[in-house]
Protein backbone atom coordinates (compact mmCIF):
# COMPACT_ATOMS: atom_id res chain seq x y z
CA UNK A 1 0.00 0.00 0.00
CA UNK A 2 1.45 3.42 -0.97
CA UNK A 3 1.53 6.48 1.29
CA UNK A 4 -1.53 8.26 -0.16
CA UNK A 5 -3.72 5.13 0.13
CA UNK A 6 -2.56 4.54 3.71
CA UNK A 7 -3.33 8.09 4.86
CA UNK A 8 -6.67 8.18 2.98
CA UNK A 9 -7.63 4.89 4.63
CA UNK A 10 -6.73 6.26 8.06
CA UNK A 11 -8.93 9.31 7.48
CA UNK A 12 -11.77 7.10 6.22
CA UNK A 13 -11.59 4.63 9.16
CA UNK A 14 -10.96 7.25 11.83
CA UNK A 15 -12.65 6.30 15.14
CA UNK A 16 -12.48 9.72 16.69
CA UNK A 17 -15.60 11.39 17.99
CA UNK A 18 -18.37 11.87 15.50
CA UNK A 19 -18.13 15.43 14.23
CA UNK A 20 -20.03 17.16 11.46
CA UNK A 21 -17.56 16.04 8.76
CA UNK A 22 -18.02 12.39 9.71
CA UNK A 23 -21.80 12.73 9.64
CA UNK A 24 -21.60 14.43 6.25
CA UNK A 25 -19.44 11.57 4.92
CA UNK A 26 -21.98 9.02 6.12
CA UNK A 27 -24.79 11.00 4.47
CA UNK A 28 -22.74 11.02 1.25
CA UNK A 29 -22.33 7.23 1.38
CA UNK A 30 -26.03 6.69 2.00
CA UNK A 31 -26.97 9.06 -0.84
CA UNK A 32 -24.68 7.27 -3.29
CA UNK A 33 -25.96 3.88 -2.09
CA UNK A 34 -29.64 4.79 -2.58
CA UNK A 35 -28.99 6.36 -5.99
CA UNK A 36 -26.98 3.33 -7.13
CA UNK A 37 -29.66 0.94 -5.90
CA UNK A 38 -32.30 2.92 -7.81
CA UNK A 39 -30.19 2.80 -10.97
CA UNK A 40 -29.77 -0.97 -10.70
CA UNK A 41 -33.48 -1.56 -10.05
CA UNK A 42 -34.84 0.75 -12.74
CA UNK A 43 -32.38 -0.40 -15.42
CA UNK A 44 -33.27 -4.03 -14.61
CA UNK A 45 -36.98 -3.24 -15.00
CA UNK A 46 -36.38 -1.74 -18.45
CA UNK A 47 -34.36 -4.83 -19.41
CA UNK A 48 -37.26 -7.00 -18.24
CA UNK A 49 -39.82 -4.96 -20.18
CA UNK A 50 -37.68 -5.19 -23.31
CA UNK A 51 -37.48 -8.98 -22.95
CA UNK A 52 -41.24 -9.17 -22.32
CA UNK A 53 -42.00 -7.18 -25.46
CA UNK A 54 -39.72 -9.41 -27.52
CA UNK A 55 -41.28 -12.60 -26.12
CA UNK A 56 -44.82 -11.36 -26.77
CA UNK A 57 -44.09 -10.35 -30.34
CA UNK A 58 -42.20 -13.60 -30.92
CA UNK A 59 -45.44 -15.46 -30.15
CA UNK A 60 -47.10 -13.82 -33.14
CA UNK A 61 -44.37 -12.61 -35.46
CA UNK A 62 -41.90 -14.69 -37.41
CA UNK A 63 -38.21 -14.94 -36.63
CA UNK A 64 -37.58 -13.57 -40.14
CA UNK A 65 -40.08 -11.84 -42.41
CA UNK A 66 -39.64 -11.38 -46.17
CA UNK A 67 -41.54 -8.47 -47.73
CA UNK A 68 -41.34 -6.54 -51.02
CA UNK A 69 -39.58 -3.18 -50.90
CA UNK A 70 -42.11 -1.67 -53.31
CA UNK A 71 -45.82 -2.47 -53.34
CA UNK A 72 -47.65 -4.74 -50.95
CA UNK A 73 -47.48 -8.06 -52.80
CA UNK A 74 -45.23 -10.13 -55.04
CA UNK A 75 -45.64 -13.19 -57.26
CA UNK A 76 -44.49 -16.54 -55.85
CA UNK A 77 -43.61 -19.40 -58.16
CA UNK A 78 -43.04 -22.93 -56.94
CA UNK A 79 -39.45 -22.98 -58.22
CA UNK A 80 -38.58 -19.67 -56.52
CA UNK A 81 -40.31 -20.74 -53.29
CA UNK A 82 -38.39 -24.03 -53.18
CA UNK A 83 -35.08 -22.24 -53.80
CA UNK A 84 -35.65 -20.19 -50.65
CA UNK A 85 -36.67 -23.26 -48.68
CA UNK A 86 -33.40 -24.97 -49.61
CA UNK A 87 -31.23 -22.19 -48.15
CA UNK A 88 -29.13 -23.57 -45.32
CA UNK A 89 -30.74 -22.77 -41.96
CA UNK A 90 -34.29 -22.21 -43.22
CA UNK A 91 -36.58 -24.50 -41.22
CA UNK A 92 -40.21 -23.59 -41.85
CA UNK A 93 -41.36 -21.24 -44.64
CA UNK A 94 -44.89 -19.90 -44.32
CA UNK A 95 -46.80 -18.10 -47.08
CA UNK A 96 -48.87 -15.11 -46.00
CA UNK A 97 -51.63 -13.05 -47.63
CA UNK A 98 -52.54 -10.14 -45.38
CA UNK A 99 -54.97 -7.28 -45.96
CA UNK A 100 -57.81 -5.33 -44.38
CA UNK A 101 -61.33 -6.76 -44.56
CA UNK A 102 -64.75 -6.21 -43.00
CA UNK A 103 -65.96 -8.83 -40.54
CA UNK A 104 -69.61 -9.31 -39.59
CA UNK A 105 -71.14 -11.53 -36.92
CA UNK A 106 -74.81 -11.37 -35.97
CA UNK A 107 -75.15 -7.78 -37.08
CA UNK A 108 -71.91 -6.60 -35.44
CA UNK A 109 -69.23 -5.32 -37.83
CA UNK A 110 -65.54 -4.50 -37.52
CA UNK A 111 -62.67 -3.79 -39.91
CA UNK A 112 -59.90 -6.27 -39.14
CA UNK A 113 -56.51 -7.32 -40.41
CA UNK A 114 -57.14 -10.60 -42.21
CA UNK A 115 -54.03 -12.79 -42.22
CA UNK A 116 -54.16 -15.84 -44.45
CA UNK A 117 -51.43 -18.36 -43.63
CA UNK A 118 -50.34 -21.73 -44.96
CA UNK A 119 -50.89 -24.89 -42.90
CA UNK A 120 -47.45 -24.81 -41.20
CA UNK A 121 -48.15 -21.46 -39.49
CA UNK A 122 -49.00 -23.09 -36.16
CA UNK A 123 -45.83 -25.23 -36.36
CA UNK A 124 -43.68 -22.19 -35.50
CA UNK A 125 -44.50 -22.11 -31.76
CA UNK A 126 -47.11 -19.43 -32.35
CA UNK A 127 -49.13 -18.24 -29.37
CA UNK A 128 -46.57 -19.69 -26.92
CA UNK A 129 -47.15 -16.65 -24.71
CA UNK A 130 -50.45 -15.27 -23.53
CA UNK A 131 -53.77 -17.11 -23.77
CA UNK A 132 -55.19 -19.39 -26.44
CA UNK A 133 -58.46 -21.21 -26.18
CA UNK A 134 -60.45 -23.17 -28.73
CA UNK A 135 -59.50 -25.40 -31.67
CA UNK A 136 -55.80 -25.37 -32.57
CA UNK A 137 -56.46 -25.89 -36.31
CA UNK A 138 -57.69 -23.70 -39.15
CA UNK A 139 -60.31 -26.20 -40.22
CA UNK A 140 -60.45 -27.90 -43.59
CA UNK A 141 -60.84 -26.73 -47.18
CA UNK A 142 -64.57 -27.46 -46.96
CA UNK A 143 -65.03 -25.94 -43.51
CA UNK A 144 -62.31 -23.32 -43.01
CA UNK A 145 -61.85 -21.92 -39.51
CA UNK A 146 -60.63 -18.60 -38.13
CA UNK A 147 -58.57 -17.78 -35.05
CA UNK A 148 -59.60 -14.37 -33.72
CA UNK A 149 -57.84 -11.91 -31.49
CA UNK A 150 -59.63 -11.63 -28.15
CA UNK A 151 -60.47 -7.97 -28.75
CA UNK A 152 -62.05 -8.77 -32.12
CA UNK A 153 -64.01 -11.65 -30.65
CA UNK A 154 -65.32 -9.60 -27.73
CA UNK A 155 -66.26 -6.63 -29.94
CA UNK A 156 -68.25 -8.88 -32.29
CA UNK A 157 -69.64 -10.97 -29.37
CA UNK A 158 -68.45 -14.18 -31.02
CA UNK A 159 -69.57 -17.40 -29.32
CA UNK A 160 -67.30 -20.33 -30.14
CA UNK A 161 -69.93 -22.75 -28.93
CA UNK A 162 -72.50 -21.55 -31.47
CA UNK A 163 -71.82 -23.81 -34.46
CA UNK A 164 -74.66 -22.42 -36.58
CA UNK A 165 -73.34 -18.84 -36.66
CA UNK A 166 -70.50 -18.12 -39.08
CA UNK A 167 -68.36 -15.06 -39.63
CA UNK A 168 -69.04 -13.16 -42.83
CA UNK A 169 -66.00 -11.58 -44.43
CA UNK A 170 -66.24 -8.78 -47.00
CA UNK A 171 -63.44 -7.43 -49.20
CA UNK A 172 -63.79 -4.50 -51.65
CA UNK A 173 -62.98 -5.08 -55.32
CA UNK A 174 -62.92 -3.00 -58.47
CA UNK A 175 -66.26 -3.23 -60.38
CA UNK A 176 -66.13 -5.04 -63.70
CA UNK A 177 -68.36 -2.49 -65.42
CA UNK A 178 -67.64 1.22 -65.21
CA UNK A 179 -70.42 3.16 -63.50
CA UNK A 180 -72.08 -0.01 -62.21
CA UNK A 181 -74.35 0.42 -59.20
CA UNK A 182 -74.74 -3.30 -58.53
CA UNK A 183 -73.45 -3.74 -54.90
CA UNK A 184 -72.46 -7.34 -55.62
CA UNK A 185 -69.77 -6.06 -57.99
CA UNK A 186 -68.26 -3.80 -55.32
CA UNK A 187 -67.12 -6.51 -52.92
CA UNK A 188 -66.44 -10.22 -52.58
CA UNK A 189 -67.66 -12.15 -49.56
CA UNK A 190 -67.26 -15.51 -47.88
CA UNK A 191 -68.15 -17.27 -44.63
CA UNK A 192 -65.83 -18.90 -42.13
CA UNK A 193 -66.28 -20.60 -38.77
CA UNK A 194 -64.78 -19.02 -35.62
CA UNK A 195 -62.59 -21.72 -34.10
CA UNK A 196 -60.46 -20.07 -31.39
CA UNK A 197 -59.34 -16.91 -29.60
CA UNK A 198 -55.81 -15.74 -28.87
CA UNK A 199 -54.60 -13.03 -26.51
CA UNK A 200 -51.01 -11.83 -26.75
CA UNK A 201 -50.82 -8.05 -26.92
CA UNK A 202 -53.52 -5.43 -27.37
CA UNK A 203 -52.45 -4.29 -30.83
CA UNK A 204 -52.72 -7.90 -32.07
CA UNK A 205 -55.78 -8.84 -30.03
CA UNK A 206 -57.89 -5.93 -31.32
CA UNK A 207 -56.95 -6.26 -34.97
CA UNK A 208 -55.91 -9.66 -36.28
CA UNK A 209 -57.88 -12.65 -37.56
CA UNK A 210 -55.95 -15.72 -38.73
CA UNK A 211 -57.49 -17.70 -41.62
CA UNK A 212 -56.28 -20.41 -44.02
CA UNK A 213 -54.19 -19.24 -46.97
CA UNK A 214 -56.62 -20.71 -49.52
CA UNK A 215 -59.53 -18.81 -47.96
CA UNK A 216 -57.79 -15.42 -48.17
CA UNK A 217 -56.42 -16.28 -51.62
CA UNK A 218 -59.93 -16.81 -53.00
CA UNK A 219 -61.60 -13.96 -51.11
CA UNK A 220 -58.94 -11.36 -51.91
CA UNK A 221 -58.34 -12.71 -55.42
CA UNK A 222 -54.57 -12.78 -54.97
CA UNK A 223 -53.83 -15.82 -57.09
CA UNK A 224 -50.06 -16.49 -57.03
CA UNK A 225 -49.36 -13.25 -55.17
CA UNK A 226 -48.26 -13.14 -51.53
CA UNK A 227 -47.79 -10.18 -49.19
CA UNK A 228 -44.95 -11.80 -47.21
CA UNK A 229 -43.11 -14.99 -46.36
CA UNK A 230 -42.34 -15.91 -42.75
CA UNK A 231 -39.27 -17.93 -41.86
CA UNK A 232 -38.48 -20.02 -38.81
CA UNK A 233 -34.82 -21.03 -38.75
CA UNK A 234 -33.67 -24.52 -37.93
CA UNK A 235 -32.77 -25.34 -34.35
CA UNK A 236 -29.16 -24.39 -33.68
CA UNK A 237 -28.91 -22.10 -36.71
CA UNK A 238 -28.08 -18.41 -36.33
CA UNK A 239 -30.93 -16.07 -37.21
CA UNK A 240 -28.50 -13.35 -38.30
CA UNK A 241 -26.59 -15.74 -40.57
CA UNK A 242 -29.79 -17.01 -42.20
CA UNK A 243 -30.96 -13.40 -42.60
CA UNK A 244 -27.73 -12.51 -44.39
CA UNK A 245 -28.11 -15.49 -46.75
CA UNK A 246 -31.70 -14.53 -47.56
CA UNK A 247 -30.71 -10.91 -48.25
CA UNK A 248 -27.98 -12.10 -50.61
CA UNK A 249 -30.39 -14.51 -52.35
CA UNK A 250 -33.35 -12.13 -52.74
CA UNK A 251 -31.49 -8.97 -53.67
CA UNK A 252 -32.59 -5.34 -53.30
CA UNK A 253 -36.23 -5.92 -54.25
CA UNK A 254 -37.00 -7.59 -50.92
CA UNK A 255 -36.46 -6.73 -47.27
CA UNK A 256 -35.65 -9.42 -44.71
CA UNK A 257 -36.40 -8.30 -41.15
CA UNK A 258 -35.68 -10.07 -37.89
CA UNK A 259 -37.96 -9.79 -34.85
CA UNK A 260 -36.43 -6.53 -33.56
CA UNK A 261 -36.49 -4.89 -36.99
CA UNK A 262 -40.18 -5.70 -37.43
CA UNK A 263 -40.90 -3.53 -34.38
CA UNK A 264 -37.87 -1.25 -34.56
CA UNK A 265 -39.84 1.82 -33.49
CA UNK A 266 -41.12 0.28 -30.27
CA UNK A 267 -37.77 -1.28 -29.33
CA UNK A 268 -36.06 2.05 -30.02
CA UNK A 269 -38.60 3.84 -27.81
CA UNK A 270 -37.90 1.49 -24.89
CA UNK A 271 -34.14 1.98 -25.29
CA UNK A 272 -34.54 5.77 -25.41
CA UNK A 273 -36.71 5.73 -22.28
CA UNK A 274 -34.08 3.62 -20.56
CA UNK A 275 -31.36 6.08 -21.61
CA UNK A 276 -33.24 9.14 -20.35
CA UNK A 277 -34.09 7.43 -17.06
CA UNK A 278 -30.41 6.51 -16.64
CA UNK A 279 -29.39 10.13 -17.27
CA UNK A 280 -32.02 11.39 -14.83
CA UNK A 281 -30.97 9.03 -12.04
CA UNK A 282 -27.31 9.78 -12.76
CA UNK A 283 -28.10 13.47 -12.28
CA UNK A 284 -29.69 12.59 -8.93
CA UNK A 285 -26.54 10.61 -8.09
CA UNK A 286 -24.48 13.70 -8.93
CA UNK A 287 -26.60 15.82 -6.58
CA UNK A 288 -26.14 13.23 -3.83
CA UNK A 289 -22.38 13.39 -4.47
CA UNK A 290 -22.31 17.11 -3.66
CA UNK A 291 -22.00 15.99 -0.03
CA UNK A 292 -18.66 14.40 -0.97
CA UNK A 293 -17.49 17.79 -2.20
CA UNK A 294 -18.53 19.52 1.01
CA UNK A 295 -17.15 16.84 3.34
CA UNK A 296 -13.77 16.77 1.56
CA UNK A 297 -13.62 20.58 1.52
CA UNK A 298 -14.22 20.69 5.28
CA UNK A 299 -11.75 17.84 5.82
CA UNK A 300 -9.12 19.80 3.88
CA UNK A 301 -9.70 22.79 6.16
CA UNK A 302 -9.54 20.62 9.31
CA UNK A 303 -6.36 18.81 8.21
CA UNK A 304 -4.37 21.90 7.20
CA UNK A 305 -1.78 21.30 9.93
CA UNK A 306 -1.40 17.63 8.94
CA UNK A 307 -0.95 18.67 5.31
CA UNK A 308 1.65 21.28 6.31
CA UNK A 309 3.61 18.65 8.27
CA UNK A 310 3.51 16.28 5.29
CA UNK A 311 4.79 19.03 3.02
CA UNK A 312 7.53 19.88 5.51
CA UNK A 313 8.59 16.23 5.37
CA UNK A 314 8.89 16.48 1.60
CA UNK A 315 5.43 15.48 0.35
CA UNK A 316 4.63 16.85 -3.11
CA UNK A 317 1.34 18.49 -4.12
CA UNK A 318 0.49 15.43 -6.21
CA UNK A 319 0.63 13.26 -3.05
CA UNK A 320 -1.74 15.59 -1.19
CA UNK A 321 -4.18 15.60 -4.12
CA UNK A 322 -3.99 11.82 -4.31
CA UNK A 323 -4.89 11.49 -0.60
CA UNK A 324 -8.09 13.48 -0.95
CA UNK A 325 -9.05 11.94 -4.28
CA UNK A 326 -8.73 8.49 -2.75
CA UNK A 327 -10.67 9.62 0.32
CA UNK A 328 -13.52 10.71 -1.96
CA UNK A 329 -13.26 7.44 -3.88
CA UNK A 330 -13.54 5.43 -0.67
CA UNK A 331 -16.69 7.29 0.35
CA UNK A 332 -18.28 6.98 -3.11
CA UNK A 333 -17.25 3.38 -3.80
CA UNK A 334 -18.37 2.22 -0.35
CA UNK A 335 -21.79 3.73 -1.06
CA UNK A 336 -21.81 2.34 -4.60
CA UNK A 337 -20.89 -1.17 -3.38
CA UNK A 338 -23.66 -1.05 -0.80
CA UNK A 339 -26.07 0.20 -3.47
CA UNK A 340 -25.11 -2.59 -5.86
CA UNK A 341 -25.66 -5.23 -3.17
CA UNK A 342 -29.05 -3.75 -2.25
CA UNK A 343 -29.94 -3.43 -5.94
CA UNK A 344 -29.04 -7.07 -6.61
CA UNK A 345 -31.11 -8.14 -3.59
CA UNK A 346 -34.11 -6.03 -4.64
CA UNK A 347 -34.05 -7.27 -8.23
CA UNK A 348 -33.66 -10.88 -7.06
CA UNK A 349 -36.61 -10.53 -4.68
CA UNK A 350 -38.73 -8.97 -7.43
CA UNK A 351 -37.85 -11.76 -9.82
CA UNK A 352 -38.63 -14.50 -7.30
CA UNK A 353 -41.56 -13.08 -5.33
CA UNK A 354 -43.00 -10.36 -7.60
CA UNK A 355 -42.98 -7.72 -4.86
CA UNK A 356 -44.24 -4.88 -7.09
CA UNK A 357 -47.29 -5.68 -9.19
CA UNK A 358 -48.13 -4.14 -12.54
CA UNK A 359 -51.52 -3.19 -11.11
CA UNK A 360 -53.38 -4.97 -13.92
CA UNK A 361 -54.12 -8.58 -14.73
CA UNK A 362 -52.49 -8.99 -18.14
CA UNK A 363 -52.70 -12.77 -18.27
CA UNK A 364 -49.03 -12.84 -19.30
CA UNK A 365 -47.16 -11.37 -16.33
CA UNK A 366 -48.53 -9.96 -13.08
CA UNK A 367 -45.44 -8.28 -11.62
CA UNK A 368 -42.83 -6.02 -13.18
CA UNK A 369 -40.38 -8.19 -15.14
CA UNK A 370 -36.68 -7.68 -14.34
CA UNK A 371 -33.37 -8.79 -15.80
CA UNK A 372 -29.86 -7.94 -14.66
CA UNK A 373 -27.54 -6.84 -17.46
CA UNK A 374 -23.81 -6.69 -16.68
CA UNK A 375 -23.38 -3.92 -19.25
CA UNK A 376 -25.62 -1.71 -17.11
CA UNK A 377 -23.30 -2.20 -14.14
CA UNK A 378 -20.41 -1.09 -16.33
CA UNK A 379 -22.21 2.17 -17.15
CA UNK A 380 -23.20 2.65 -13.51
CA UNK A 381 -19.56 2.17 -12.48
CA UNK A 382 -18.41 4.69 -15.11
CA UNK A 383 -20.98 7.20 -13.80
CA UNK A 384 -19.87 6.71 -10.17
CA UNK A 385 -16.16 7.08 -11.06
CA UNK A 386 -16.77 10.19 -13.17
CA UNK A 387 -18.96 11.89 -10.56
CA UNK A 388 -16.49 11.01 -7.77
CA UNK A 389 -13.55 12.53 -9.65
CA UNK A 390 -15.52 15.70 -10.39
CA UNK A 391 -16.68 15.99 -6.77
CA UNK A 392 -13.24 15.30 -5.29
CA UNK A 393 -10.94 17.22 -7.58
CA UNK A 394 -11.59 20.74 -6.29
CA UNK A 395 -11.18 19.88 -2.56
CA UNK A 396 -8.04 17.90 -3.41
CA UNK A 397 -6.57 20.86 -5.29
CA UNK A 398 -7.41 23.24 -2.40
CA UNK A 399 -5.71 20.87 0.05
CA UNK A 400 -2.56 20.79 -2.10
CA UNK A 401 -2.30 24.61 -1.94
CA UNK A 402 -1.84 24.78 1.86
CA UNK A 403 0.96 27.16 2.84
CA UNK A 404 3.44 25.20 4.99
CA UNK A 405 5.06 28.23 6.64
CA UNK A 406 1.73 29.82 7.55
CA UNK A 407 0.19 26.69 9.07
CA UNK A 408 3.25 25.70 11.11
TrEMBL record:
Coiled coil: none annotated. Residues 280-400 form the ABC3 transporter permease C-terminal domain. The keyword Cell inner membrane does not apply. It is a multi-pass membrane protein. The chain crosses the membrane at residues 20-46, 275-302, 323-347, 377-398. It is found in: Cell membrane. Its main location: membrane. InterPro entries: ABC3_permease_C, Lipoprotein-release_system, MacB_PCD. Residues 25-248 form the MacB-like periplasmic core domain. Keywords: Cell membrane, Membrane, Transmembrane, Transmembrane helix. This is FtsX-like permease family protein. Pfam families: FtsX, MacB_PCD. Belongs to the ABC-4 integral membrane protein family. LolC/E subfamily.
